[in-house]
Amino acid sequence: MYTIYQFTLPAMLWAVVIWRAPSAFNGSRPSRYLWGFLTAITVAVTTRAPAVEDLILVATGSPDLSILIKHVAGLASNYFVMEYVITVHGRGPRRAAALRLRIVAVLTAALALTVVFVFFFKHDPTAPAREVTDAHLGDPAVRLYEGIVYVYLGTATLLSAKLFWSNRRSVPRGLLRAGVVCLAAGSALGFVYTFYRVLFFARLGSQAQAVKPGSIDEHISEILPAITLLVLLAGLALPPLRTLVRYLHDQYALWRLHPLWSDLLVAAPTVVFGPRVGRTRDLFVLGDRTLDVAHRAFEIRDACLVLRDRSAEPGPEGAEPACEEPLGGEEPDARAEAAWLFAALHGNFDAGRPPLPSRARSPREEVAWLLKVAAAYRQLSGAQDARVRGREGRHAEPAS
């Protein structure tokens, strides 16, 4: 058996199951269906490990019960993923009759597998668990058993792929839509695997032989499901990754705005600022920070308005505060606003013409603009610190 099924895939899947458990128990119906799919497919993959097969043998006394558990769990995973995609992306109301029909279908398939497995399979206590099917592929009972699995699997994967793909445009662009596309691709790969296995059984006919080790059939039958699972996991992981990317972006914006915000907090005490937090400590605040970024931008803008009210009459039209060091890489208007703020915060309100009111039409535009201003302000602060250190160095030389 391929090593990826012994540890890599089970470990990845169990990690995702544990990670998604809180949202399943405290979340909506789609979250519970999604968690049910993950749990079922994880159980199915885990039963393939030899250590788990031995554990099931010791616990039940059955030499090959792990095969039945794997396939019943596979049926359950396909049922849950169908319910998930229908609930999330269905175009019509959920009908109780259709829901009952899907439940009856999966229960009937599971019961049929159990009956065929228990009463019609040839169980050999001395053979590996997989041999109960692989060594008897031409047996009518095995062919019926596999036929039930692939009929249900093919129907579920084809329907899921169709629904995911047809509803991808209703999802916002970016990682969220990419996740839906991955789910559609994973479902399509599941259907391709099912179609290949049906062709394999048709080509095999009534021959009662196992798949030859190292053959192309074995490679495809082992690798294709692994690729399918990895693509499905990628589709499930991309939407949370979108949240993580947004969180990192907001944290980075707060980090860049902090020096200007901190100076304005001292210069404009009449403005109601949020609690003062250190720049490094601010990085360890968890949760959604989108509102924090917007609040910080509003606080900076309110403080700027206070400084405008304190400033002297505007200078000549087009006048701009002088700057000893060039500021590269930022827009001229952002440089002008940063230079005026720098002068005003250091008590020089006559340094030039105050900036015009912000022309941002949304919080996102306001934050983007203030990030440019904060970058230019940081350059001015760095240039002043360098000049101060230079003067201190020149004064210290005679004493040495």
SSE series: HHHHHHHHHHHH
Q: Mean of residue pLDDT?
A: 80
Strand-residue proportion: under 5%
Give the overall silhouette.
Answer: elongated
Structure annotation, total helices: 12
Q: Which blocks of ≥5 consecutive residues have pLDDT under 50? A: 313-330
Largest beta-sheet characterization:
none
Number of strands: 0
Rg: 32 Å
Distance between the termini: 76 Å
Approximately how much helix is present in the residues?
over 70%
Class per helix and strand makeup: mainly alpha
Layout of SSEs?
Elements lengths: L7 H19 L2 H18 L3 H11 L4 H25 L6 H25 L10 H4 L5 H27 L8 H30 L11 H52 L22 H21 L21 H14 L17 H37 L1
Helix pairs in contact: 1-2, 2-4, 4-5, 4-7, 5-7, 7-8, 8-9, 9-10, 9-12, 10-12, 11-12
3D architecture notes:
- About 4% of the residues have low confidence.
- The chain is elongated.
- It is an all-alpha fold.
- The N and C termini lie far apart (76 Å).
- 71% of the residues lie in helices and 0% in strands.
Relevant terms:
single chain; 0% strand; elongated
In short:
Helix content is 71%, strand content 0%.
